[in-house]
């Protein structure tokens, strides 16, 4: 590859072989996809099995003044996504192909699964779900680590038309319980224990607490299916006799309710290995996935079947330039949308071979990612800027220990990637020979919406470049006027693409309010973006009260409400502050009750409370004593000023709307010494 100033051009050899060989080809395909969507997507549609064909290709309304917002693709068509991912690929002769190489937390713990074996397991588990009374449309909760059973569980749901609702296994029991209650899930699937790095996680115990919370909120989970994971982990761990005995003891201590709980392996023993797929409508729900909302309560983003299948398949193929025989690895957890679309649905729709990894980048050494790439000869690697930044800290030595020559495409997702991290990824990991795909998208978008294409798009470090096929981004100013040409504004989309969400579970009103009320006729992402002179788009980050810590999106409101629950807290306000590794971190201003001492124990109680109520990734970095908070005369907290105080920037701008200006000086005085 060569670089021209800030632009990095794909090399000649890479260009000739890629699915989209040039920018001219990209521009034509993109223009065609907008001019005649039916023609464009019909070619994709034809690759899949539809039990009945569509009658109405596509209809939508983004404009609330014209009636309810609605998005529909392939109405009249029926299909089954699990059938398309497994049975169809087996019929095409890919039965013996490896669907997943599974790599455990411990390097000695690994296995693999072919497409044929995967189908067998999925059918068996689909039958288990049926035996628990799960039927089409029922919600099934999943709270699991990155093990093959998690994928099996997802596809088993899809096979019988049930809707999976996965909660990341780093969320606390309260967060899990609230989500179970919101989606009214009938069955939960979890594991006894899991290891993350050196830490033992008691997932079944957390699930039990969550089920209790859910019951107290008025919804009863009928069954809980538990994978016995710890004993097999222990077997591969090279334990001393003493450690092994201890783990066995722990394994036997799993909390249990005989009426509700059952073991996965025992249920699977007698289950039939075939299960006829349930044909569902293209617009029937496939899954829901919670994402943070700026008012605090998480939103159950709902995705449907037909359009999502086409979009996951197409983005995977083009954005990773996947070719048969390639080995692809996405490090995202299945608890996030990236894990749904680019660990499971996209790769399997392309009969791809993937690596699925249960561990962390730091265990047993800081070279774990690079050693896994070498071990499986990974061709496409997809991870998050926060991981890249964390690994950069250890320098080049861990990288140099491994041969990374198999790599062709390097992906980034979750937050803007800073130039320094981009260059390190490009030079040290990709050896200046790989395309970097900085993919911008959201839980709501279902798949990539802004992204370079490998071997095609000249790259600029930090820019997500151009829209994917079928996507029409627009920048708007405060008043909703179009920004054409170079400029910065609100990033919105003018029309739906097939993989976009359809609604928020059980709350279409909130769906319309959140995404379609700020600008009439547009889907608002909540992000800002800049367009440069060459037409490249640069996502600048959230424009609402959301923050992105290590790629985990959360709202300031949700953290504030947890802090406010502490009896010693009178008021709390949370803002984000830039962080070298995490991208952003939580900076919390807390006004204690007059009787509450602001001491180390109080600070640690507050931090623990946030970890326990939301999850360890939400742990605040700073708790700042706030004698008062800067407010407008109407009582609104001025976060703009708090963000300045958090970075010790005294240039706070206009303060004319402040009710009490002395508050600001007081806050600068109480800044903790060590931040
Ligand atoms: C896929 C995912 C969505 C938010 C999104 C934006 C940020 C994601 C990005 C990016 C800049 C990128 N984001 N990818 N910002 N460049 N390449 O992350 O979904 O968890 O819903 O987060 O993440 O702020 O709005 P989700």
UniProtKB/TrEMBL annotation:
What reaction does this catalyse? acetate + ATP + CoA = acetyl-CoA + AMP + diphosphate
* Chain ranges of the AMP-dependent synthetase/ligase domain: 94-502
The protein's organism comes out as Nesidiocoris tenuis
Look up the domain of life of the source.
Answer: Eukaryota
Instruction: Establish whether keyword ATP-binding is in the entry.
Output: yes
The transmembrane residues are none
Cross-referenced Pfam families: ACAS_N, AMP-binding, AMP-binding_C
Stretches for region Disordered: 1-20
Name under which the protein is recorded = Acetyl-coenzyme A synthetase
Keyword Nucleotide-binding appears in the UniProt entry: yes
- Similarity remark: Belongs to the ATP-dependent AMP-binding enzyme family.
Entry keyword set: ATP-binding, Ligase, Nucleotide-binding
**Might you give the EC number(s) for this enzyme?**
6.2.1.1
- The coiled-coil regions, if any, are none
The UniProt entry, under InterPro entries, shows: Ac_CoA_lig, ACAS_N, AMP-bd_C, AMP-bd_C_sf, AMP-binding_CS, AMP-dep_synth/lig_dom, ANL_N_sf
Q: Which residues form the AMP-binding enzyme C-terminal domain?
A: 558-636
Sequence ranges assigned to domain Acetyl-coenzyme A synthetase N-terminal in this UniProt record: 26-84
């Amino acid at each position: 590859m060569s670089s021209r100033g800030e632009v990095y051009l794909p090399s000649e050899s890479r260009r000739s072989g890629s699915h989209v060989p040039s920018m001219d080809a990209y521009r034509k395909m993109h223009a065609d996809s907008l001019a005649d969507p039916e023609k464009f997507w019909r070619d994709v549609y034809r690759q899949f099995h539809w039990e009945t064909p569509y009658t109405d290709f596509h209809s939508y309304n983004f404009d609330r003044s014209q009636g309810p917002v609605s998005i529909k693709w392939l109405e009249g068509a029926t299909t089954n996504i699990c059938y398309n991912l497994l049975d169809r690929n087996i019929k095409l002769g890919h039965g013996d192909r490896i669907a997943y190489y599974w790599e455990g937390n411990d390097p000695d713990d690994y296995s693999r699964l072919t497409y044929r074996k995967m189908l067998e397991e999925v059918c068996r588990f689909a039958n288990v779900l049926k035996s628990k009374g799960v039927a089409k449309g029922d919600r099934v909760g999943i709270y699991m680590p990155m093990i093959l059973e998690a994928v099996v569980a997802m596809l088993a749901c899809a096979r019988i038309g049930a809707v999976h609702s996965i909660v990341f296994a780093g969320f606390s029991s309260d967060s899990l319980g609230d989500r179970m209650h919101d989606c009214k899930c009938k069955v939960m699937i979890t594991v006894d224990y899991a290891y993350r790095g050196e830490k033992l996680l008691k997932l079944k115990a957390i699930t039990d607490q969550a089920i209790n919370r859910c019951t107290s909120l008025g919804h009863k989970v009928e069954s809980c299916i538990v994978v016995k994971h710890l004993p097999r982990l222990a077997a591969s761990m090279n334990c001393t006799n003493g450690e092994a005995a201890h783990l066995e003891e722990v394994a036997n201590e799993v909390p249990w309710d005989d009426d509700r709980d059952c073991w996965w392996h025992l249920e699977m023993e007698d289950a039939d290995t075939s299960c006829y797929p349930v044909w569902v409508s293209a617009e029937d729900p496939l899954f829901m996935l919670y994402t943070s909302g700026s008012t605090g309560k998480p939103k159950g983003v709902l995705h449907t079947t037909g359009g999502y299948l086409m979009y996951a398949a197409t983005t995977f193929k083009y954005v990773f330039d996947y070719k048969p025989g390639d080995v692809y690895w996405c490090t995202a957890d299945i608890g996030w949308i990236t894990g749904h679309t680019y660990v499971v649905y996209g790769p399997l729709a392309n009969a791809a071979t993937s690596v699925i990894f249960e561990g962390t980048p730091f265990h047993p050494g800081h070279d774990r990612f690079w050693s896994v790439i070498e071990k499986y000869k990974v061709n496409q690697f997809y991870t998050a800027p926060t991981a890249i930044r964390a690994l950069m800290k250890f320098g080049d030595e861990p990288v140099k220990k491994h041969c990374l020559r198999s790599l062709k495409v390097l992906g980034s997702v979750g937050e803007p990637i800073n130039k320094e991290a981009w260059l390190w990824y490009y030079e040290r990991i990709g050896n200046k020979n790989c395309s970097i795909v900085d993919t911008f998208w959201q839980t709501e978008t279902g798949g990539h919406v802004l992204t370079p294409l490998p071997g095609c798009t000249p790259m600029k470090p930090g820019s997500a470049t151009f829209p994917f096929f079928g996507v029409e981004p627009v920048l708007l100013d405060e008043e909703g006027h179009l920004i054409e040409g170079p400029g910065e504004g609100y990033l919105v989309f003018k029309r739906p693409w097939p993989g976009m969400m359809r609604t928020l579970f059980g709350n279409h009103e909130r769906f319309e309010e959140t995404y379609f009320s700020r600008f009439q006729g547009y889907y608002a992402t909540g992000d800002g973006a800049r367009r440069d002179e060459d037409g490249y788009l640069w996502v600048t980050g959230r424009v609402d009260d959301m923050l992105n810590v290590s790629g985990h999106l959360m709202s300031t409101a949700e953290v504030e409400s947890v802090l406010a629950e502490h009896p010693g807290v009178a008021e709390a306000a949370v803002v984000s502050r830039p962080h070298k590794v995490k991208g952003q971190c939580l900076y919390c201003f807390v006004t204690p009750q007059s009787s509450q001492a602001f001491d180390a124990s109080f600070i640690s109680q507050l931090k623990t409370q946030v970890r326990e109520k939301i999850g360890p990734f939400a742990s605040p970095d700073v708790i700042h004593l706030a004698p008062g908070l800067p407010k407008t005369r109407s009582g609104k907290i001025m976060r703009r000023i708090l963000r300045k105080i958090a970075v010790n920037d005294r240039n706070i701008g206009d303060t004319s709307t402040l009710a009490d200006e002395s508050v600001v000086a007081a806050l600068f005085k109480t800044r903790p010494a060590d931040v």
